[in-house]
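4.2 Preliminary Data

To establish feasibility before requesting continued support, the project team ran the inverse folding procedure on a target of 271 residues. The structure was first converted into the token representation described in Section 3, and no sequence information of any kind was made available to the design step. The complete token record follows.
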């Protein structure tokens, strides 16, 4: 009667009863669910494969996809977006980077940008500095004002964290904060050169746009934060913790940014 009700053949029912339980598959599915929850339901099959390999498991993307279907796990990553075409350039600050997003060493090219986050009763603004070598976050700052002081604070933190490097090329969009006198003086003090994207062309600063997309789709609550303090603590944990040290990155061959940079240091000592 039950087989008829659920549309299962009697032979299939008895065969399933005799089949042994695959305990290894159950453990793998539990580990997959744990990593998926850690990513706040954002990791897809590619990211989960890299995470599982780092944990010592050996399996492919299609098996991970099947396990996700069995466990009812579905990534919340959004689809593609249509961007505007470029409108022109700023003549005094040309696009020196020219979409060369693969420097040979750390501390050669940094890029920066600003985004906004809801913090209970008002918007807060987040400025991030990214080292393009391994896509590692090297500095960030949050404020209730989107002014030049915000981007200067993020740059100061990056400069101190990375050991006060010189000769860095800093790339950004044409935001007024990055074109301000205060920020350009700070770059001059640190002996850095400046590059700016073409107007209306977000692809010229694609690594920063991708970082903010990951932050907003993977980590931020759907309704925002309850306070500025909560937002600052949680976003800091994502940028300097999960993103830098745990989240696999396609530009690094599936390695987190901090792990990729550590590999470079190990190879340098060997050579």
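Position-by-position output of the design step:
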């Amino acid at each position: 009667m039950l087989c008829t009700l659920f549309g299962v053949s009697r032979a299939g029912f008895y065969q399933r009863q005799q089949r042994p339980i695959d305990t290894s598959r159950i453990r793998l599915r539990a580990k997959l669910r744990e990593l998926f929850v850690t990513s706040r339901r954002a990791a897809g099959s590619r990211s989960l494969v890299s995470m599982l390999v780092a944990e010592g498991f050996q399996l492919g993307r299609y098996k991970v996809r099947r396990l996700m279907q069995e466990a009812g796990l579905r990534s919340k990553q959004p689809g593609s977006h249509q961007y505007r075409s470029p409108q022109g350039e700023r003549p005094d600050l040309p696009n020196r980077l020219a979409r060369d997003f693969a420097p040979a060493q750390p501390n050669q090219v940094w890029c920066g940008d600003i985004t906004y986050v809801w913090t209970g009763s008002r918007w807060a603004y987040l400025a991030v500095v990214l080292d393009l070598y391994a896509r590692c976050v090297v500095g960030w700052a949050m404020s209730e004002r989107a002014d030049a002081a915000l981007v200067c604070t993020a740059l100061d933190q990056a400069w101190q964290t990375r050991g006060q490097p010189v000769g860095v090329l800093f790339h950004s969009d044409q935001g007024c904060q990055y074109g301000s006198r205060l920020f350009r003086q700070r770059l001059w003090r640190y002996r850095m050169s400046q590059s700016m994207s073409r107007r209306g062309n977000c692809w010229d600063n694609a690594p920063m746009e991708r970082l903010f997309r990951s932050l907003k789709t993977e980590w931020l609550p759907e309704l925002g934060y309850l306070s500025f303090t909560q937002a600052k603590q949680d976003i800091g944990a994502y940028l300097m913790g999960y993103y830098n040290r745990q989240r696999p990155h396609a530009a690094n061959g599936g390695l987190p940014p901090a792990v990729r940079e550590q590999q470079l240091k190990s190879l340098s000592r060997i050579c």
